[in-house]
Amino acid sequence: MSTTPPSSSSPTVSSSHDIFSVNPYESHPNLSPVEAEVLWEYAKLAQHVKSLSQKTRALHEEPDKTMLARLRVLEKKMGLVLTLFKASVWGVINDQPAPETYYDSSNNTTIQHH
What three-state secondary structure class fits 112? Predict the structure, then answer.
């Protein structure tokens, strides 16, 4: 399969959106129709990756303000949930009866569970 770019006589892609509607490899004389289709699919995939890269870069450079605000609200709620969970665990521990201890001949105290 030849991977030569389209020649100057082939139609060129004038904008990134044209790649999705016009196959620039279609009339290339050295490519079979299947090769032209495969190269077109690769070109469309490359455009998607380029677009994704641009959007990722934009998000990295300036975080989404609404997303940050929503995450801050969620962070506060999770902090409250953690505090309430700790309090409930503490309450459960305090509600348990104190374990009985006994003294053996060496005066060691150990906890006995019945």
Answer: strand
Distance, CA of 41 to CA of 19 (rounded, Å): 9
Chain CA centroid to CA 55, Å: 14
pLDDT in tens, the chain (114 residues): 444 444 444 444 445 568 899 999 999 999 999 999 999 999 999 999 999 999 988 877 777 788 888 999 999 999 999 999 999 888 888 888 776 666 556 666 666 555
C-alpha 81/C-alpha 77 separation (Å) is 6
Residue 58, classed as helix, strand or coil, is helix
**Two structure tokens written together for 69:** 């605000």
Please tell me the distance from the alpha carbon of residue 49 to that of residue 43, in angstroms, as a whole number.
10
